[in-house]
User: What shape does this take?
Amino acid sequence: MFIEDFKIYSNIKIAENTFVIGVESNQKVDDLKPGQFFNIQVSENYFPLLRRPFSISDVQGNKIFFMYKIVGEGTQILSQKKIDEKINLLGPLGNSFNLQDDFENLILIGGGIGIAPFPFMIKQIPNKNYKVLFGVRTKIEAHNFGLKNVLYSSEDGTIGIKGNVIDLLDEELKNLEFEKTKIFACGPNAMFRALQKYLSDKNILCEVSMESAMACGFGICQGCPTEHKNSDSYKLICKDGPIFNIRDIVI
Ligand SMILES: Cc1cc2nc3c(=O)[nH]c(=O)nc-3n(C[C@H](O)[C@H](O)[C@H](O)COP(=O)(O)OP(=O)(O)OC[C@H]3O[C@@H](n4cnc5c(N)ncnc54)[C@H](O)[C@@H]3O)c2cc1C
Ligand code: FES
Assistant: This one.
């Protein structure tokens, strides 16, 4: 884990309210894994005081890229950052998606900005049979930044199938053997709740990346607890996660 000032290399808009910021270190950044995140200091002023967590979206040599959606003050400030400005990163933090299992088919589900970790992840699975299912509310939120093999669902039917990612998943699973298929998902809790229900009677392994407001990002402040079915006490999303088996989490 390091705390380091990075130089901003790029900061571009890729869809409605959605940006990708690239930051550059003086040295090669090694050993980053898909699903891990960094806690980024978006401002040197007192507000917003806390760092903001963002998943690693891509890594190219000494550059790290983060895809983010503007939802509040911190992400608004981030969107105004200019090339060559400095920004402080704390990380890498958290566990990562487990890509070691020998599954034939991988399904990557991104709900909205939950798509963020997948460009980095698909670089690690070039020889796998995988599909990315990207659920948006409407077409202007959709993009294919760093993605391949993407299918879309939209609530208003303006791109892909009309419906949500669970409808899309249901279609995809019709052609796949459950025991040979693994699902990875990142998105809002409402999506996880629907996914947990949908998978409850199916023998499919599914890892999800959970979100929470975070302060420290590495287990000190106890500010990101989550109830876990196989634990006497709670788990911390920043340290024990953010990736959990969907069967273990209480959403
Ligand atoms: C491990 C992890 C990885 C993340 N990766 C990404 C990423 O790759 N790209 C990205 O855009 N966002 C990501 N997030 C969410 C991101 O951290 C928040 O959107 C960001 O902190 C909001 O900061 P803000 O100051 O703009 O908004 P705030 O002013 O802090 O909040 C604005 C609104 O967003 C809600 N909100 C804030 N944080 C979260 C959160 N963590 N989950 C759900 N709702 C939240 C608030 O309740 C409020 O309604 C991640 C969060 C976690 C925990
Ligand atoms: S954010 Fe501090 S313990 Fe998780």
Summary: Residues 152 and 160 are 4 Å apart (CA to CA). The two ends are 29 Å apart (CA to CA). DSSP finds four helices and 16 strands in the chain. Residues 214-217, 219-224, 236, 238 surround FE2/S2 (inorganic) cluster (ligand 2) (CB under 6 Å).
